[in-house]
Specification:
By secondary structure, the chain is of the alpha+beta class. The protein has 8 helices and 8 strands.
Length: 239
């Protein structure tokens, strides 16, 4: 009977250990998570509160905040519920509208006119988080201002290699223009052209074509970047 009692305690301890391990595996670590192409940002704090933003056309956004629990999180007193599931190092977010009448607007009530969100994967930001990228770009600027162009290039190039898939077009364009200018300073025109290649199609369009493609608020952001790209492409193509 003593042996049986010991075995019972062992099984209880084992079950508790497995439960803790499962919880540790499924619990979402606090930190910053991003969507591809800069389409969204999820911040989870140590106290399990969160803020989630997605970005649409013409500076429209969706903004959600609340607390993560084992059940879907209700956003304020609305019929909008959000669930979070750990997927490796990333987070799968699902939206669920629990409509009660025809007048309920659900999760869309937290979105601007040209924004929307139906769920998707947020990736652990790591080196591609806002703070980390800002620090990298600051280090690049310090080296660039000192005319240490090789060091500036070595600082900024890895950011594009690691983070390009998570950058919104304006941010990617700005980084590529900075890097291309440093490459131009050391006479590496081939590298300059390669860096700007993803932007070349937009740069080849006329201003009228660009104005047709982008709404007004986006145009104010995009057009200066496109003009900067045109200038650098011209310099990099020069004999």
């Amino acid at each position: 009977m003593v042996w049986g009692g010991n075995m019972k305690h062992i099984f209880i301890a084992l079950a508790a250990t497995l439960s803790i391990a499962t919880y540790a595996h499924t619990r979402i670590p606090p930190g910053e998570y991003v969507m591809e192409h800069g389409q969204g940002l999820l911040i989870i704090k140590p106290d399990r509160t969160f803020s989630l933003a997605t970005f649409g056309r013409d500076a429209s956004t969706c903004d959600f905040s609340g607390a993560i629990s084992n059940e879907p999180s209700q956003i304020e007193d609305s019929v909008c519920f959000i669930s979070f599931k750990r997927k490796g190092h990333n987070v799968l977010v699902d939206m669920n509208n629990r409509y009660t009448n025809d007048q309920d607007t659900g999760c869309s009530s937290f979105c601007g006119y040209r924004a929307g969100y139906g769920g998707g994967t947020f990736y652990a930001a790591s080196d591609c988080g806002r703070k980390s990228m800002a620090q990298t770009r600051n280090r690049f600027k310090v080296s660039y201002d000192k005319k240490d162009y090789p060091k500036a290039i070595a600082t900024l190039s890895p950011l594009l290699e690691k983070c390009a898939r998570f950058l919104a077009w304006p941010e990617e364009s700005s980084i590529r223009n900075d890097l291309a200018l440093a490459q131009l300073h050391i006479g590496n025109k081939a590298a300059c052209l390669a860096t700007l290649k993803p932007l070349a199609e937009d740069a080849s369009q006329s201003e009228d074509e660009i104005r047709e493609r982008y709404p007004p608020l986006e145009l104010d952001i995009f057009l200066p970047l496109i003009n900067a790209t045109r200038t650098k492409l011209r310099l990099c193509r020069a004999p």
